[in-house]
Design a protein that fits this description.
Oligomer: single chain
CATH architecture: 3-Layer(aba) Sandwich
Distance between the termini: 42 Å
Radius of gyration: 19 Å
Order of helices and strands: HEHEHEEHEEEEEHEEEHEEHHEHE
Length: 290
């Protein structure tokens, strides 16, 4: 009886959130590291499908950095990063497309479809979804040529709106294209933020391998459960944000200032972390508001 009462309380707690989020668009970014573990992939897929079945409109954005590096090494290609950015020459760009579009995207789509709903895979090249420009990176020694590494110049969300209206779950690989048809490798965190802003999403959620934003990375008790955009910016300016978290926090700040209702950074390695963050009072990560 105790377990039954607990289940009833959980469902009751979730009801107001289900009502609030009904027919709202939620952009979820999942990283390549979370997609290496079969159990994590299963939890992620079931959470996304549940979101769709209770009336939400999930849009998935994914990276695949570890998988790209692995294939490059197997092909005897140099794996090189500058300030966290992958140096992407023509050969590396082909590998990025093979892994993100040809492998990772298809795997996520198949996982979601196994649970009875319909996902559609695409990249920023499809329907000119993401118009990109070459990233100009200023390093410690001046301007660094990163090759075919891009930034989001403009988003054309029409194709995503059409898919959502027909009850599909779009799964987007973080590749963009310029006006001449050249493909670019774009940071998936930045893609997720740009799509959330362009779609007028209600929420933007980043699944990471840490619990959220912490004031002390070595001390999990210093997790910051809620921040305003101004507070998050102050932490960035004062160097209180871990280097790997910086693109996520910047994207969250830009998104909420661009009309997204809330942005979340949570640990995707926790069992059903996405559902716990969205449908419980306490949540499990850091929430950033305007």
């Amino acid at each position: 009886m105790g377990d039954e009462k607990l289940k009833a309380r959980i469902l009751t707690e979730a009801l107001p959130f289900i009502k609030e989020f009904y027919d709202k668009t939620v952009v979820v970014k999942v990283g390549g590291s979370a997609l290496e573990d079969p159990q994590l992939k299963e939890w992620f897929a079931t959470d996304v499908v549940l979101m769709r079945y209770v009336g939400m409109n999930p849009v998935v954005v994914h990276g695949g950095g570890p998988q790209v590096s692995d294939l490059m090494r197997r092909l005897s290609l140099e794996v090189r990063f500058v300030d966290g950015h992958r140096v992407t020459d023509a050969a590396a760009m082909e590998v990025v497309k093979m892994v993100l579009v040809g492998k990772m995207n298809k795997e996520i789509v198949n996982l979601i479809n196994e649970h009875g709903t319909l996902a559609v895979g695409l990249s920023g090249e499809d329907g000119s979804l993401i118009l990109a420009r070459k990233k100009v990176h200023q390093g410690n020694e001046g301007t660094v040529d990163l090759g075919f590494v891009g930034e989001v110049e403009r988003v054309n969300p029409k194709i995503l709106h059409n898919l959502i209206e027909n009850e599909f779950i779009p799964v987007v690989a973080s590749i963009g294209v310029d006006e001449r048809g050249q493909s670019y490798n774009i940071n998936a965190d930045l893609v997720a933020g740009a799509l959330a802003e362009a779609l007028g999403a209600y929420k933007l959620v980043y699944l990471t391998d840490v619990d959220g934003i912490m004031r002390d990375l070595e001390d999990p008790t210093t997790l910051v459960p809620e921040l305003t955009a101004a507070e998050a910016e102050k932490m960035l300016e004062e160097g209180q944000v871990d280097k790997g978290m910086i693109p996520k926090v910047r994207s969250c700040v830009r998104a909420v200032r661009g009309g997204v209702h809330r942005a979340h950074i949570i640990n995707g390695r926790r069992e059903h972390a996405l559902i716990l963050e969205l449908f419980t009072d306490s949540g499990v990560g850091t929430m950033i508001s305007p």
